[in-house]
Amino acid sequence: MIEVKDISKRYGDGTVALGGVSFSIDKKITSIIGKNGAGKTTLLRILSTQLAPSSGTALINSHDLIKNADEIRKIIVSVPQEAKPIQYISASDFVRMYLSARGFGISEAKAAAEKALRKVGLWEFRDKLTAELSGGMKRKVFVATALASDADVIFLDEPTTGLDPFSRIEIWHAIKALRGQVILTTHYMEEAQALSDDVIMMDRGKILSKGSVNELLKGFDGLVRVEGRKRRKMAYKVGDVYVSYVDRRKAAKFINEGEIIRPIMLDDLFIKRGVNLES
Ligand code: ADP
After folding, report:
1. How many domains does the chain have?
2. What ligand 1 atom has the least distance to the C-alpha of 157?
3. Which of 9, 33, 35, 42 should be mutated for ligand 1, with most atoms under 8 A from CB?
4. Distance, CA of 84 to CA of 80 (rounded, Å)
5. What is the residue range of 226's domain?
6. Residue 279 lies inside a defined structural domain of this protein
7. Model's pTM, two decimal places?
8. Which end of the chain is more exposed for a tag (fewer CB within 10 A), N or C?
Protein backbone atom coordinates (compact mmCIF):
# COMPACT_ATOMS: atom_id res chain seq x y z
CA MET A 1 0.00 0.00 0.00
CA ILE A 2 1.37 3.37 -1.01
CA GLU A 3 -0.05 6.66 0.15
CA VAL A 4 1.24 9.75 -1.60
CA LYS A 5 0.67 12.93 0.40
CA ASP A 6 0.84 16.19 -1.44
CA ILE A 7 4.22 15.64 -3.11
CA SER A 8 5.64 18.50 -5.14
CA LYS A 9 8.93 18.83 -6.95
CA ARG A 10 10.65 21.92 -8.23
CA TYR A 11 13.99 21.31 -9.90
CA GLY A 12 16.95 23.63 -9.39
CA ASP A 13 16.27 25.48 -12.65
CA GLY A 14 12.76 26.36 -11.46
CA THR A 15 10.88 23.69 -13.45
CA VAL A 16 7.87 22.52 -11.47
CA ALA A 17 7.67 18.82 -12.33
CA LEU A 18 5.06 17.94 -9.71
CA GLY A 19 2.51 20.40 -8.46
CA GLY A 20 1.31 18.67 -5.29
CA VAL A 21 -0.03 15.17 -5.95
CA SER A 22 -1.94 12.95 -3.55
CA PHE A 23 -3.33 9.48 -4.16
CA SER A 24 -3.10 5.95 -2.87
CA ILE A 25 -2.02 2.80 -4.65
CA ASP A 26 -3.53 -0.40 -3.38
CA LYS A 27 -3.82 -2.60 -6.46
CA LYS A 28 -1.31 -5.16 -7.70
CA ILE A 29 -0.22 -3.41 -10.91
CA THR A 30 -0.62 0.33 -11.33
CA SER A 31 0.48 2.21 -14.44
CA ILE A 32 1.24 5.91 -14.47
CA ILE A 33 0.49 7.28 -17.92
CA GLY A 34 0.91 10.66 -19.57
CA LYS A 35 2.83 12.41 -22.28
CA ASN A 36 6.54 13.22 -22.12
CA GLY A 37 7.23 15.77 -19.42
CA ALA A 38 4.05 14.96 -17.42
CA GLY A 39 6.14 14.18 -14.34
CA LYS A 40 5.97 10.36 -14.35
CA THR A 41 9.70 9.71 -13.95
CA THR A 42 10.05 12.40 -11.31
CA LEU A 43 7.25 10.82 -9.29
CA LEU A 44 8.73 7.34 -9.63
CA ARG A 45 12.20 8.53 -8.64
CA ILE A 46 10.78 10.23 -5.57
CA LEU A 47 8.73 7.20 -4.50
CA SER A 48 11.76 4.94 -4.95
CA THR A 49 13.87 7.24 -2.69
CA GLN A 50 16.26 8.35 -5.45
CA LEU A 51 15.13 11.95 -5.44
CA ALA A 52 13.93 14.15 -2.59
CA PRO A 53 10.58 15.89 -3.03
CA SER A 54 10.41 19.67 -2.51
CA SER A 55 7.48 19.11 -0.16
CA GLY A 56 5.09 16.37 0.88
CA THR A 57 5.81 12.75 1.66
CA ALA A 58 4.53 9.22 1.07
CA LEU A 59 3.99 6.08 3.07
CA ILE A 60 5.23 2.90 1.46
CA ASN A 61 3.95 -0.14 3.34
CA SER A 62 3.65 2.20 6.35
CA HIS A 63 7.23 3.51 6.13
CA ASP A 64 7.58 7.24 5.73
CA LEU A 65 9.53 8.27 2.64
CA ILE A 66 11.31 11.12 4.36
CA LYS A 67 11.92 9.61 7.80
CA ASN A 68 12.48 5.94 6.92
CA ALA A 69 14.05 5.91 3.46
CA ASP A 70 16.49 3.16 4.51
CA GLU A 71 13.64 0.89 5.55
CA ILE A 72 11.90 1.52 2.25
CA ARG A 73 15.04 0.64 0.27
CA LYS A 74 15.00 -2.83 1.84
CA ILE A 75 11.54 -3.64 0.54
CA ILE A 76 11.59 -2.08 -2.93
CA VAL A 77 13.30 -2.65 -6.26
CA SER A 78 13.56 0.10 -8.80
CA VAL A 79 14.47 -0.30 -12.46
CA PRO A 80 15.24 3.06 -14.07
CA GLN A 81 14.54 3.72 -17.71
CA GLU A 82 18.19 3.92 -18.69
CA ALA A 83 19.21 0.80 -16.73
CA LYS A 84 21.67 -1.44 -18.52
CA PRO A 85 23.13 -4.58 -16.95
CA ILE A 86 26.92 -4.68 -16.49
CA GLN A 87 28.13 -5.73 -19.94
CA TYR A 88 30.80 -8.33 -19.35
CA ILE A 89 29.26 -10.73 -16.93
CA SER A 90 26.68 -13.40 -17.63
CA ALA A 91 22.97 -12.84 -17.11
CA SER A 92 23.02 -15.35 -14.28
CA ASP A 93 26.02 -13.72 -12.54
CA PHE A 94 24.34 -10.33 -12.85
CA VAL A 95 21.19 -11.50 -11.07
CA ARG A 96 23.23 -13.31 -8.41
CA MET A 97 25.47 -10.31 -7.84
CA TYR A 98 22.46 -8.08 -7.42
CA LEU A 99 20.95 -10.48 -4.90
CA SER A 100 24.23 -10.68 -2.95
CA ALA A 101 24.23 -6.89 -2.75
CA ARG A 102 20.75 -7.13 -1.24
CA GLY A 103 22.02 -9.49 1.44
CA PHE A 104 21.14 -12.92 0.00
CA GLY A 105 23.52 -15.77 0.92
CA ILE A 106 25.38 -17.53 -1.93
CA SER A 107 23.17 -20.60 -2.23
CA GLU A 108 20.01 -18.60 -1.61
CA ALA A 109 20.99 -16.20 -4.42
CA LYS A 110 21.78 -19.09 -6.77
CA ALA A 111 18.43 -20.76 -6.22
CA ALA A 112 16.43 -17.52 -6.49
CA ALA A 113 18.31 -16.47 -9.65
CA GLU A 114 17.63 -19.81 -11.31
CA LYS A 115 13.94 -19.68 -10.49
CA ALA A 116 13.61 -16.12 -11.80
CA LEU A 117 15.65 -16.67 -14.96
CA ARG A 118 13.51 -19.69 -15.79
CA LYS A 119 10.35 -17.69 -15.20
CA VAL A 120 11.30 -14.90 -17.60
CA GLY A 121 12.54 -17.31 -20.26
CA LEU A 122 16.24 -16.47 -19.88
CA TRP A 123 17.48 -19.73 -18.43
CA GLU A 124 18.92 -21.03 -21.67
CA PHE A 125 20.80 -17.72 -22.09
CA ARG A 126 22.07 -17.62 -18.51
CA ASP A 127 25.74 -18.00 -19.46
CA LYS A 128 25.69 -15.40 -22.21
CA LEU A 129 27.35 -12.07 -21.53
CA THR A 130 24.64 -9.48 -21.04
CA ALA A 131 26.37 -7.38 -23.74
CA GLU A 132 25.38 -10.10 -26.22
CA LEU A 133 21.71 -10.13 -25.28
CA SER A 134 19.02 -8.32 -27.28
CA GLY A 135 17.41 -5.16 -25.87
CA GLY A 136 14.37 -7.13 -24.75
CA MET A 137 16.49 -9.74 -23.02
CA LYS A 138 18.50 -7.06 -21.20
CA ARG A 139 15.25 -5.67 -19.80
CA LYS A 140 14.24 -9.18 -18.85
CA VAL A 141 17.43 -9.51 -16.84
CA PHE A 142 16.16 -6.63 -14.71
CA VAL A 143 12.69 -8.08 -14.41
CA ALA A 144 14.41 -11.30 -13.30
CA THR A 145 16.34 -9.41 -10.60
CA ALA A 146 13.09 -7.84 -9.40
CA LEU A 147 11.41 -11.24 -9.42
CA ALA A 148 14.30 -12.95 -7.60
CA SER A 149 14.61 -10.21 -4.99
CA ASP A 150 11.05 -10.91 -3.87
CA ALA A 151 10.59 -7.20 -3.14
CA ASP A 152 7.28 -5.96 -1.79
CA VAL A 153 7.16 -3.01 -4.18
CA ILE A 154 8.67 -2.84 -7.65
CA PHE A 155 9.08 0.41 -9.59
CA LEU A 156 9.61 0.11 -13.35
CA ASP A 157 10.23 3.24 -15.40
CA GLU A 158 9.14 2.73 -19.01
CA PRO A 159 9.95 -0.99 -18.95
CA THR A 160 9.33 -1.62 -22.65
CA THR A 161 10.22 1.63 -24.41
CA GLY A 162 11.92 0.93 -27.70
CA LEU A 163 11.36 -2.81 -27.64
CA ASP A 164 9.89 -4.87 -30.45
CA PRO A 165 6.30 -6.13 -30.00
CA PHE A 166 7.33 -9.67 -29.09
CA SER A 167 9.78 -8.61 -26.41
CA ARG A 168 7.13 -6.31 -25.01
CA ILE A 169 4.66 -9.13 -24.63
CA GLU A 170 7.33 -11.24 -22.92
CA ILE A 171 8.12 -8.42 -20.51
CA TRP A 172 4.40 -8.00 -19.78
CA HIS A 173 4.17 -11.64 -18.79
CA ALA A 174 7.27 -11.35 -16.64
CA ILE A 175 5.78 -8.29 -14.92
CA LYS A 176 2.56 -10.19 -14.27
CA ALA A 177 4.63 -12.88 -12.54
CA LEU A 178 6.06 -10.46 -9.96
CA ARG A 179 4.82 -11.14 -6.46
CA GLY A 180 4.93 -7.62 -5.05
CA GLN A 181 3.04 -4.48 -5.90
CA VAL A 182 4.19 -3.07 -9.25
CA ILE A 183 4.17 0.61 -10.16
CA LEU A 184 5.25 1.35 -13.70
CA THR A 185 5.32 4.31 -16.00
CA THR A 186 4.57 4.06 -19.67
CA HIS A 187 3.56 6.21 -22.57
CA TYR A 188 2.15 3.20 -24.40
CA MET A 189 -1.58 3.25 -23.78
CA GLU A 190 -2.02 -0.36 -24.86
CA GLU A 191 0.61 -1.38 -22.32
CA ALA A 192 -1.27 0.29 -19.48
CA GLN A 193 -4.47 -1.25 -20.79
CA ALA A 194 -3.03 -4.77 -21.02
CA LEU A 195 -1.29 -4.79 -17.66
CA SER A 196 -2.90 -2.57 -15.09
CA ASP A 197 -5.40 -3.08 -12.36
CA ASP A 198 -5.32 0.67 -11.88
CA VAL A 199 -4.20 3.56 -14.06
CA ILE A 200 -3.08 6.99 -12.91
CA MET A 201 -3.35 9.66 -15.60
CA MET A 202 -0.91 12.53 -15.27
CA ASP A 203 -0.44 15.81 -17.09
CA ARG A 204 1.79 18.77 -16.27
CA GLY A 205 2.68 17.55 -12.82
CA LYS A 206 -0.92 16.88 -11.78
CA ILE A 207 -3.12 13.78 -11.50
CA LEU A 208 -6.01 13.96 -13.94
CA SER A 209 -7.75 10.71 -12.94
CA LYS A 210 -7.20 7.36 -11.33
CA GLY A 211 -9.12 4.11 -11.64
CA SER A 212 -9.33 0.78 -13.42
CA VAL A 213 -9.36 0.87 -17.23
CA ASN A 214 -13.06 0.00 -17.17
CA GLU A 215 -13.88 2.74 -14.69
CA LEU A 216 -11.91 5.33 -16.62
CA LEU A 217 -13.47 4.39 -19.96
CA LYS A 218 -17.05 4.13 -18.72
CA GLY A 219 -18.08 7.36 -20.41
CA PHE A 220 -17.21 5.85 -23.79
CA ASP A 221 -19.54 2.83 -23.59
CA GLY A 222 -20.98 1.98 -27.00
CA LEU A 223 -18.77 4.46 -28.83
CA VAL A 224 -15.95 4.18 -31.33
CA ARG A 225 -13.37 6.72 -32.33
CA VAL A 226 -13.53 8.28 -35.78
CA GLU A 227 -10.42 9.92 -37.22
CA GLY A 228 -10.42 11.94 -40.37
CA ARG A 229 -9.51 15.15 -42.10
CA LYS A 230 -13.08 16.38 -42.11
CA ARG A 231 -14.06 18.78 -39.37
CA ARG A 232 -17.10 17.37 -37.61
CA LYS A 233 -19.28 18.75 -34.90
CA MET A 234 -17.80 18.11 -31.45
CA ALA A 235 -14.51 16.99 -32.97
CA TYR A 236 -11.17 17.28 -31.17
CA LYS A 237 -8.20 18.43 -33.22
CA VAL A 238 -5.17 16.18 -32.77
CA GLY A 239 -2.33 17.41 -34.95
CA ASP A 240 -3.96 17.84 -38.34
CA VAL A 241 -6.57 15.14 -37.74
CA TYR A 242 -10.06 15.52 -36.28
CA VAL A 243 -11.18 12.95 -33.75
CA SER A 244 -14.77 12.40 -32.77
CA TYR A 245 -16.70 9.76 -30.87
CA VAL A 246 -19.75 8.14 -32.43
CA ASP A 247 -22.17 5.33 -31.73
CA ARG A 248 -20.49 2.15 -32.90
CA ARG A 249 -23.63 1.16 -34.84
CA LYS A 250 -23.00 4.14 -37.09
CA ALA A 251 -19.37 3.24 -37.79
CA ALA A 252 -20.04 1.82 -41.28
CA LYS A 253 -21.14 5.21 -42.58
CA PHE A 254 -17.84 6.78 -41.52
CA ILE A 255 -15.79 3.97 -43.03
CA ASN A 256 -17.60 4.58 -46.33
CA GLU A 257 -16.59 8.22 -46.10
CA GLY A 258 -12.94 7.20 -45.84
CA GLU A 259 -12.54 7.87 -42.14
CA ILE A 260 -10.56 5.62 -39.83
CA ILE A 261 -12.47 3.84 -37.06
CA ARG A 262 -10.70 2.69 -33.92
CA PRO A 263 -11.77 1.08 -30.67
CA ILE A 264 -11.66 3.33 -27.60
CA MET A 265 -8.30 3.32 -25.80
CA LEU A 266 -6.90 5.18 -22.81
CA ASP A 267 -5.47 7.89 -25.04
CA ASP A 268 -9.05 8.97 -25.77
CA LEU A 269 -9.26 10.21 -22.19
CA PHE A 270 -6.37 12.55 -22.89
CA ILE A 271 -7.86 13.68 -26.19
CA LYS A 272 -11.13 14.54 -24.46
CA ARG A 273 -9.20 16.64 -21.99
CA GLY A 274 -7.38 18.45 -24.75
CA VAL A 275 -4.00 16.80 -24.07
CA ASN A 276 -2.22 15.97 -27.30
CA LEU A 277 -0.01 12.98 -26.55
CA GLU A 278 1.91 13.41 -29.81
CA SER A 279 3.18 16.91 -29.12
P1 ADP B 1 7.94 12.22 -17.77
O2 ADP B 1 8.61 11.07 -17.09
O3 ADP B 1 6.45 12.19 -17.63
O4 ADP B 1 8.37 12.39 -19.19
P5 ADP B 1 9.64 13.90 -16.12
O6 ADP B 1 9.36 13.60 -14.70
O7 ADP B 1 10.87 13.29 -16.74
O8 ADP B 1 8.35 13.57 -16.98
O9 ADP B 1 9.75 15.47 -16.30
C10 ADP B 1 8.80 16.39 -15.78
C11 ADP B 1 9.30 17.80 -16.03
O12 ADP B 1 10.47 18.04 -15.27
C13 ADP B 1 9.68 18.08 -17.48
O14 ADP B 1 9.35 19.40 -17.77
C15 ADP B 1 11.19 17.87 -17.48
O16 ADP B 1 11.78 18.64 -18.50
C17 ADP B 1 11.56 18.39 -16.11
N18 ADP B 1 12.78 17.74 -15.56
C19 ADP B 1 13.01 16.42 -15.41
N20 ADP B 1 14.22 16.20 -14.84
C21 ADP B 1 14.75 17.42 -14.62
C22 ADP B 1 15.98 17.89 -14.05
N23 ADP B 1 16.88 17.04 -13.57
N24 ADP B 1 16.18 19.23 -13.99
C25 ADP B 1 15.27 20.11 -14.46
N26 ADP B 1 14.08 19.74 -15.01
C27 ADP B 1 13.82 18.43 -15.09
Report:
1. 2
2. 2
3. 42
4. 9
5. 219-272
6. no
7. 0.92
8. C
